[in-house]
Amino acid sequence: MTDTIRVRPAAATDADALAAFAESTFREAFGPDNTPEDMEAYVGEAFGAEQQRGEIEDGDSIVLVAERDGELIGYAHLREGADAPIFLERFYIAPGLKGRGFARALMDDVFSAAVSRGARSIQLAVWERNPRAIAFYRKCGFTEVGTRTFVLGTDPQKDVVMERVL
Fold it and tell me: Hey, CA dihedral for 101, 144, 62, 25, is it positive or negative?
Protein backbone atom coordinates (compact mmCIF):
# COMPACT_ATOMS: atom_id res chain seq x y z
CA MET A 1 0.00 0.00 0.00
CA THR A 2 1.17 3.48 -0.80
CA ASP A 3 0.98 6.52 1.43
CA THR A 4 -0.20 8.81 -1.35
CA ILE A 5 -3.70 9.52 -2.49
CA ARG A 6 -5.26 10.56 -5.74
CA VAL A 7 -8.00 13.17 -5.53
CA ARG A 8 -10.33 13.61 -8.48
CA PRO A 9 -13.76 15.00 -9.26
CA ALA A 10 -16.47 12.43 -8.61
CA ALA A 11 -18.36 11.00 -11.58
CA ALA A 12 -21.94 9.74 -11.64
CA THR A 13 -20.53 6.21 -11.74
CA ASP A 14 -19.10 6.83 -8.25
CA ALA A 15 -22.57 7.37 -6.72
CA ASP A 16 -23.12 3.85 -5.37
CA ALA A 17 -19.67 3.54 -3.79
CA LEU A 18 -19.84 7.09 -2.47
CA ALA A 19 -23.28 6.49 -0.92
CA ALA A 20 -22.02 3.44 0.97
CA PHE A 21 -18.82 5.17 2.07
CA ALA A 22 -20.62 8.38 3.10
CA GLU A 23 -23.17 6.53 5.20
CA SER A 24 -20.52 4.33 6.81
CA THR A 25 -18.24 7.21 7.78
CA PHE A 26 -21.15 9.31 9.05
CA ARG A 27 -22.40 6.43 11.22
CA GLU A 28 -18.90 5.83 12.57
CA ALA A 29 -18.42 9.49 13.42
CA PHE A 30 -21.82 10.25 14.94
CA GLY A 31 -23.66 7.01 15.67
CA PRO A 32 -22.28 6.50 19.19
CA ASP A 33 -23.55 9.94 20.29
CA ASN A 34 -27.02 9.84 18.75
CA THR A 35 -30.11 7.67 18.93
CA PRO A 36 -30.57 4.94 16.32
CA GLU A 37 -33.88 6.55 15.32
CA ASP A 38 -32.30 9.94 14.63
CA MET A 39 -29.43 8.33 12.73
CA GLU A 40 -31.81 6.29 10.56
CA ALA A 41 -33.94 9.32 9.77
CA TYR A 42 -30.92 11.37 8.70
CA VAL A 43 -28.95 8.79 6.72
CA GLY A 44 -32.13 7.71 4.92
CA GLU A 45 -32.39 11.18 3.42
CA ALA A 46 -28.74 12.17 3.08
CA PHE A 47 -26.76 9.26 1.70
CA GLY A 48 -28.65 7.23 -0.88
CA ALA A 49 -27.08 6.58 -4.28
CA GLU A 50 -29.59 8.84 -6.03
CA GLN A 51 -28.85 11.64 -3.55
CA GLN A 52 -25.12 11.26 -4.19
CA ARG A 53 -25.62 11.14 -7.97
CA GLY A 54 -27.68 14.33 -7.78
CA GLU A 55 -24.98 16.09 -5.77
CA ILE A 56 -22.28 14.95 -8.20
CA GLU A 57 -24.26 16.19 -11.20
CA ASP A 58 -25.37 19.46 -9.58
CA GLY A 59 -23.63 22.36 -11.31
CA ASP A 60 -23.42 24.25 -8.00
CA SER A 61 -21.54 21.40 -6.31
CA ILE A 62 -18.04 20.04 -6.42
CA VAL A 63 -17.66 16.50 -5.13
CA LEU A 64 -14.11 15.24 -4.79
CA VAL A 65 -13.17 11.64 -4.07
CA ALA A 66 -9.86 10.55 -2.57
CA GLU A 67 -8.48 7.15 -3.50
CA ARG A 68 -5.49 5.15 -2.40
CA ASP A 69 -4.51 2.16 -4.51
CA GLY A 70 -7.89 2.40 -6.25
CA GLU A 71 -9.86 2.28 -3.00
CA LEU A 72 -12.17 5.12 -1.90
CA ILE A 73 -10.74 6.53 1.33
CA GLY A 74 -12.32 9.97 1.55
CA TYR A 75 -14.47 12.60 -0.04
CA ALA A 76 -15.42 16.25 0.12
CA HIS A 77 -18.56 18.03 -1.07
CA LEU A 78 -18.50 21.77 -1.70
CA ARG A 79 -21.60 23.77 -2.60
CA GLU A 80 -21.79 27.20 -4.12
CA GLY A 81 -24.62 29.40 -3.00
CA ALA A 82 -25.95 32.85 -3.66
CA ASP A 83 -23.56 34.32 -1.11
CA ALA A 84 -19.81 34.74 -1.56
CA PRO A 85 -18.29 31.88 0.45
CA ILE A 86 -18.34 28.40 -0.96
CA PHE A 87 -19.58 25.94 1.68
CA LEU A 88 -17.86 22.67 2.58
CA GLU A 89 -20.90 20.45 3.17
CA ARG A 90 -19.06 17.23 3.94
CA PHE A 91 -15.48 16.18 4.51
CA TYR A 92 -14.62 12.61 5.53
CA ILE A 93 -11.62 10.28 5.60
CA ALA A 94 -11.89 6.57 6.38
CA PRO A 95 -11.66 6.14 10.17
CA GLY A 96 -8.59 3.90 10.15
CA LEU A 97 -6.63 6.41 8.08
CA LYS A 98 -7.03 9.51 10.19
CA GLY A 99 -3.86 11.21 11.38
CA ARG A 100 -1.75 10.07 8.42
CA GLY A 101 -1.87 13.21 6.26
CA PHE A 102 -4.63 12.07 3.90
CA ALA A 103 -7.15 14.58 5.24
CA ARG A 104 -4.70 17.45 4.75
CA ALA A 105 -3.99 16.31 1.19
CA LEU A 106 -7.73 16.22 0.44
CA MET A 107 -8.19 19.64 2.06
CA ASP A 108 -5.48 21.10 -0.18
CA ASP A 109 -7.50 19.91 -3.19
CA VAL A 110 -10.65 21.41 -1.64
CA PHE A 111 -8.87 24.77 -1.45
CA SER A 112 -7.77 24.48 -5.08
CA ALA A 113 -11.27 23.55 -6.24
CA ALA A 114 -12.77 26.49 -4.35
CA VAL A 115 -10.25 28.92 -5.84
CA SER A 116 -10.97 27.54 -9.32
CA ARG A 117 -14.62 28.48 -8.81
CA GLY A 118 -13.66 32.01 -7.80
CA ALA A 119 -14.40 31.60 -4.09
CA ARG A 120 -12.72 34.04 -1.75
CA SER A 121 -13.45 31.99 1.34
CA ILE A 122 -14.73 28.61 2.46
CA GLN A 123 -17.18 28.07 5.29
CA LEU A 124 -18.12 24.85 7.03
CA ALA A 125 -20.17 23.75 10.00
CA VAL A 126 -18.88 21.17 12.46
CA TRP A 127 -20.66 19.64 15.44
CA GLU A 128 -19.57 21.35 18.65
CA ARG A 129 -19.02 17.88 20.17
CA ASN A 130 -16.41 16.91 17.55
CA PRO A 131 -13.18 18.36 18.99
CA ARG A 132 -10.89 16.35 16.71
CA ALA A 133 -12.52 17.80 13.59
CA ILE A 134 -12.51 21.32 15.04
CA ALA A 135 -8.79 21.00 15.79
CA PHE A 136 -8.10 19.74 12.26
CA TYR A 137 -9.99 22.63 10.69
CA ARG A 138 -8.10 25.10 12.87
CA LYS A 139 -4.81 23.57 11.68
CA CYS A 140 -6.05 24.14 8.12
CA GLY A 141 -6.55 27.84 8.81
CA PHE A 142 -10.26 27.97 9.64
CA THR A 143 -11.51 30.24 12.42
CA GLU A 144 -14.82 30.23 14.24
CA VAL A 145 -17.30 32.80 12.93
CA GLY A 146 -20.59 31.71 14.50
CA THR A 147 -22.95 28.84 15.21
CA ARG A 148 -25.99 27.26 13.58
CA THR A 149 -28.52 24.58 14.37
CA PHE A 150 -28.30 21.23 12.58
CA VAL A 151 -31.22 18.84 13.00
CA LEU A 152 -30.27 15.16 13.07
CA GLY A 153 -33.55 13.30 12.79
CA THR A 154 -35.55 15.06 15.50
CA ASP A 155 -32.57 16.28 17.56
CA PRO A 156 -31.51 19.93 17.12
CA GLN A 157 -27.73 20.13 17.59
CA LYS A 158 -25.31 23.04 17.69
CA ASP A 159 -22.70 23.35 14.95
CA VAL A 160 -19.73 25.69 15.02
CA VAL A 161 -19.45 27.64 11.77
CA MET A 162 -15.85 28.14 10.66
CA GLU A 163 -14.35 30.07 7.78
CA ARG A 164 -11.05 30.30 5.96
CA VAL A 165 -10.15 33.12 3.64
CA LEU A 166 -8.47 31.82 0.49
Answer: positive
Chain-centre distance for alpha carbon 24? 13
- What's the CA angle centered on 116, arms 56 and 94, to 5 degrees? 50
Q: Which helix (H) or strand (E) holds 92?
A: strand 86-93
Within 13 A of 89's CA, how many CA atoms are on the CB side? 17
Note the pTM of the prediction, 2 decimals: 0.92
Query: How far is it, in rounded angstroms, from Cα 86 to Cα 119?
Result: 6
Q: HEC profile for 148-165?
A: EEEEECCEEEEEEEEEEE
DSSP state of 5: -
Q: Which residues of the chain have pLDDT under 70?
A: 1-2, 82-84
Query: d(Cα 74, Cα 104) in Å, to the nearest integer?
Result: 11
Model pLDDT, residue 153: 93
Q: What's residue 2's pLDDT? A: 58
The C-alpha atoms of residue 32 and residue 162 are separated, in whole angstroms, by 24
Closest CA to 161 of 87, 53, 76, 97: 87
